[in-house]
Specification:
Elements lengths: L10 H19 L3 E4 L4 H14 L8 E5 L5 H14 L3 E5 L16 H16 L3 E3 L8 H4 L4 E4 L27 E4 L7 H11 L10 E8 L2 E4 L13 E6 L12 E2 L5 H9 L5 H5 L9 H8 L3
Helix pairs in contact: 1-2, 2-6, 6-7
Length: 302
């Protein structure tokens, strides 16, 4: 009996191939790309894809992190391990640039929102013409309407009503001086795809993605970490729970969820039955209004 080889790709293989194609297209087309790398799960998947896209050569562009000064130490530690292992140049754009007048802290605006001015200043200062981001269309409705190649004008702003068509995976990367592109190679991935891929690749992740004991308190229907950056308000009390983080960002605005999932397969089982996205459940900066994410993106956010 003749046995024919099955050349069909799995769903993960198709997603990986599409993302690697995007990385190579951008590297060939743009003069000075950069990969935005926070140390979170999505940016780790991007780093892994970039590593594969150019292997055995090194990744041919630097990585950029916008540091709010309120990042989880476990995430920064993992970021440094990845950067050192791959030998890429790390550019850290710090919101602490408040002192230099790059951004203005009025005492009311969250550090997360202050990332906008810091990011745009760094892109202009370094001359980056394309910036890879880990946004996925399943995360939030503003990201669902964004293209893979997302044009930013000379002010770094996004116009959702003026986006370029991307028929047959053909991308238009033409820009004028002072403009740049945001590139989203994970656009068609879901949170579940991300975790299946991480399970397949077995790469290093921040420990806070897995179940651990943490002192937390309830605010705006989210469990926030006890911290000097999170002073308690009247009526709030600290309790110790077994939790994990579905997404990582500004410590003062990122909530955790009660969970006993201590391995990636257990996280996959947990996410498979989830009915709320990670941003919708645990990111305080998306709860300010129905259009909070789109408003930030229009101004230059990731």
């Amino acid at each position: 009996m003749t046995v024919h080889a099955d050349y069909r790709l799995s769903q993960l293989d198709e997603l990986e191939a599409e993302s690697i194609h995007i990385f190579r297209e951008v590297a060939a087309e743009f003069e000075k790309p950069v990969l935005m790398f926070s140390g979170g799960k999505d940016s780790i998947v991007m780093m892994r894809l970039a590593e594969k896209a150019f292997f055995p050569a090194k990744i041919p562009f630097p990585v950029l992190q916008v540091d709010t000064g309120l990042d989880f130490p476990e995430v920064l530690e993992c970021r440094d391990h990845w950067v050192n292992r791959l030998g890429v140049r790390l550019v850290v754009a710090s919101v602490e640039a408040i002192a230099k007048g790059v951004v203005v802290d009025d005492g009311k605006t969250s550090r997360n929102r202050l990332q906008i001015g810091t990011l745009l200043h760094t892109i202009e200062e370094e001359g980056f013409t394309a910036a890879f981001g880990g946004g996925r269309r399943d995360e939030e409705k503003a990201r669902a309407k964004e293209r893979v190649y997302s044009h930013r004008d000379e002010f770094g702003q996004w116009d959702p009503k003026n986006q370029r068509p991307e028929l047959w995976s053909l991308y238009n990367g033409r820009i004028h001086a002072g403009e740049h592109m945001r590139i989203f190679p994970l656009s068609n991935w879901t949170e579940l795809d991300i975790w299946h891929y991480l399970n397949q690749e077995q790469v290093e992740l921040p420990s806070i993605y897995f179940a651990h004991q943490r002192r937390v308190f309830l605010r705006d229907k989210m469990l926030l970490s006890e911290s000097a950056f999170n002073p308690l308000r009247p009526g709030e009390t600290v309790i110790e729970k077994t939790v994990r983080f579905r997404t990582v960002g500004d410590l003062s605005l990122t909530g955790c969820v009660e969970s006993t999932a201590s391995t990636i397969p257990e996280i996959v089982d947990e996410i498979a039955v989830a009915r709320v996205t990670e941003r919708g459940e645990t990111r305080g900066d998306d709860k300010f209004s129905e259009a909070a994410m789109e408003d930030r993106k229009r101004e230059g956010y990731f």
